[in-house]
Amino acid sequence: MEDEEKLSQCRNALLVFVINNIENKLPIKEEEMREILGKDKALLKECLPSVIQTLKKVYGIVLQRVPDTRKYICYSQLSASSTAEYDLEQIRHLTLLFVILSYLLMKDCRVDEDQLFNFLKGLRIDIDEEHTYFTGNLRKLICETFVKQLYLKREKSDSETDMETRYLFSWGYRATMEFPPKDVLQQTAGILGKEARDFVSIYNKYCSNDNNEEPMAVD
Predict the structure, then answer these.
(1) Rounded to two decimals, what is the model's pTM?
(2) In terms of CATH architecture, what is 2-76?
(3) What is the pLDDT of residue 144?
């Protein structure tokens, strides 16, 4: 009975820890969760499945391990396009993030940092100037915050021909969970007044398996 009570207390402690770390959207390290349980690996292994189930069933929150790491992310089962659970600043950040993810998706590859920033500047979003809507330090938001939250990946170019250090942006793991690419494609196409099918290669990659549809032919 005492063992079961201790196990229940450990589960609750771990649950509270995870919930308290959801809002900042930073990955939760496995070692941080072990610290809560007295660095007991076996106890974490025993408690974690129950915590994951409770988060999903009671709170609608998914706790998922990031592949090839000992880190976990939390995200809502609700679509990220639903703004009901966000404050104004978070909505603004998500709007900018959606713009960036849409651009990266349409390029269907990693994009050079300067290329991304020039695209944003074309939309009158200069990351080194104050913006009336997004406000704050946009360079830090894009290059640091979104990267730490795993919405974006920012990696050094491995090209040996580059004279200076170049960085490339691509979708981060959290983005693939919260923003299904097919949904981003459909919304972006709608904004552009087109159908998702009009973007043939991207549509074939992310949407052709839906409802057993045949891939679109490339002209």
Answers:
(1) 0.86
(2) Orthogonal Bundle (1.10)
(3) 96
